[in-house]
Amino acid sequence: MDTQSVGYKIKAFGARNLAFLFLIATLLIACSTPSTAPQPDTTLPISVVGEPASEPMSHGLVDVGGRSLWFQCVGQGTPTVILEAGGPDNSSSWFKVQTVGDQGYRVCSYDRANLGMSNKASTPRTFEDMAQDLHTLLVNAGIQRPYILVGHSMGGMLVRVFTDRYPDEVVGLVLVDAAHPDMGPRLLAGLPKKSLLESMAIRSWRQYLTWQSDSKGQDRMNIEGVDLQSSIEQVKALQPLGDLPLVVISRSPHNKEWPGMPTLPVEINSALFQIWQDLQNELTGLSSNSTHVFASSAGHMIPTEEPEVVIQSIHKLVNDVRSQTGKFDTQTTPVEQTHAPTILRIEDRPSEYKNGILFLYKDVIFSDEDGDAIFDQPWMVSADPPGDYPLFGGFIPSSSDEQVGGGARDPIIVSCHSQATFVIDVRIVDQTFNQSEPVRLTFNCPAPKTYISPSLIIGLVLGLCVLGVAIWLIVRHRQTRRASA
């Protein structure tokens, strides 16, 4: 059974393997020669550009100085939880965490520059640049402080930089299988000494872990344009967290898989896994007020594989911060709201093939009088043939004005990998979890067509041309020898 026949709401959904490979790319930094770049002057005034919102926004594009970043928030109450994705993921990697959590506090995610629905920014960029972007976004969108920052993978280092730069605005941190600034040389030391006869798997791992000394191919992974070396140095220069509440969430001790990487011999894989766990243990030492939590089964991609452990940790930290400071109400009054979103109609769009995969499109046209519809909530009604098909919801890109005007559009996308029929119900949900009546969508995936990649065709043509030239040269050479004889 092909369990990958439906890929609902795949737009802007970060690829699991790509995220992990980018994490591996960050390992290169510490393997290289120490950076000679000057350290940033953190005494410089912090600029806020753009026009701050007259009242808190729930979602949309926010000006951060000549370009905009996309964000979305759900729930009400403080402290506000800010979700920072790993590289090169965007906000959709937090979808399960953000939409299933507690409504008693506000939870926000966003797309960094050069990702998702946010605008492009000049590169290279450092964690300091990203932290200032985030701060400007929070101010200009009117997102109330103080903040609890939740960082996954590379995002774990980024939220530490933000906390160091804006310490009065952060009341807690959650690091989700976060990157460690020293992990490059430490993991590289877990590999056996270099040998001419080493396996392709070990050679591939060694290449990943020493990439920084050889920048060839680095840009293929670095779609954000991150100056990793300078960013790592920024993390190493951070001040201790003191007694700031900190939760470190680490991958399951029973999950030793490294997605996107070749399989290593058991003893080497175990050595690398133990180094990773040691690094996670060291992160708990960043604060004298820390807690270490382990996923029960998830690997590195905890936000999508086991979101409940992240939600539970955030909930506990919010309550702990509220009780310790006494500055927050444990029960906040929700925004008064009487209007749920209304689905108006469904519009079909032409299907298309991409890299041999057929994509089917339908647009859910809806309105929302309050203009704060945030995400769609799908569930599978039936599938033929039956199977455990992955199904994800997604954030809605339509603006508040489009929603109020009745012209909001929520794209629904299904990728067809085999012949199948899917019946899916979808609701539109707003920031206070008011729901529209469901609409039923049917997608008919035909049997896949034989697909030949254009690059393969070009390669075959070039290969035939080279072969033809080679044959012509051989024949010409033989004719010349015969003539001279």
Structure description:
The protein is of the alpha/beta class. The protein has helices at 16-26, 95-100, 127-140, 154-165, 183-188, 200-209, 218-221, 228-236, 266-284, 302-305, 307-325, 400-405, 454-484, and strands at residues 59-63, 68-74, 80-84, 107-110, 147-152, 170-176, 246-250, 290-294, 342-354, 357-367, 373-384, 394-395, 408-416, 420-430, 439-445. An eight-stranded mixed beta sheet has the order 1-2-4-3-5-6-7-8, sandwiched between helices. A hairpin with a 2-residue loop joins strand 9 (342-354) and strand 10. Helix 3 (127-140) packs across helix 4 (154-165). The longest helix has 31 residues, at 454-484. The relative contact order is 0.15.
Compact overview of the structure:
The protein is of the alpha/beta class and 485 residues long. It has helices at residues 16-26, 95-100, 127-140, 154-165, 183-188, 200-209, 218-221, 228-236, 266-284, 302-305, 307-325, 400-405, 454-484; strands at residues 59-63, 68-74, 80-84, 107-110, 147-152, 170-176, 246-250, 290-294, 342-354, 357-367, 373-384, 394-395, 408-416, 420-430, 439-445. Helix 4 links the parallel strand 5 and strand 6.
Keywords for this structure?
single chain, 485 residues, alpha/beta, 8-stranded mixed sheet, 4-stranded antiparallel sheet, 15 strands, 22% strand, globular, disordered N terminus
Tell me the span between the first and last alpha carbons.
Answer: 67 Å
Percent range for β-strand residues: 15-25%
| Main sheet summary | 8 strands, mixed
Shape: globular
Per DSSP E runs of 2 or more residues, the count of β-strands stands at 15
Strand order of the largest sheet: 1-2-4-3-5-6-7-8
**Rg to the nearest angstrom?**
25 Å
Mean pLDDT: 83
Total helical segments: 13
**Relative helix content:** 25-40%
Order of helices and strands: HEEEHEHEHEHHHHEHEHHEEEEHEEEH
Instruction: Specify the structural class.
Output: alpha/beta
